[in-house]
Write a structure and sequence with these properties.
This protein is an alpha+beta fold. It contains 1 helix and 3 strands, in the order E-E-H-E. The longest helix has 13 residues.
Length: about 80
């Protein structure tokens, strides 16, 4: 049976590295925190998503380790 995939929504996932505690002391090994933002329109270009992610990272206290675009599709059997 053929399957039809339809884009539903995308999201942006950013992993931050928390390398200091609230007092400014180094944490070893660093803790990673992942945040998701969305939904993002599936028709948005990768460059637009990247620019948005860079703007979000600039507002954060911690550095970003990874920036990912997660695409979600609905699968329907025809």
């Amino acid at each position: 049976m053929p399957v039809v995939s339809t884009p539903v929504a995308d999201s942006l996932r950013i992993t931050f590295v928390v390398d200091e505690d609230v007092d400014g002391n180094a944490i070893s090994p660093p803790i990673k925190r992942t945040r998701s933002y969305g939904p993002i329109d599936p028709s948005a270009t990768d460059q637009d998503v990247w620019d948005f992610a860079v703007a979000l990272v600039a507002l954060q206290e911690y550095t970003a380790e990874t920036i990912e675009r997660v695409k979600t599709f609905e699968l329907v059997g025809a």
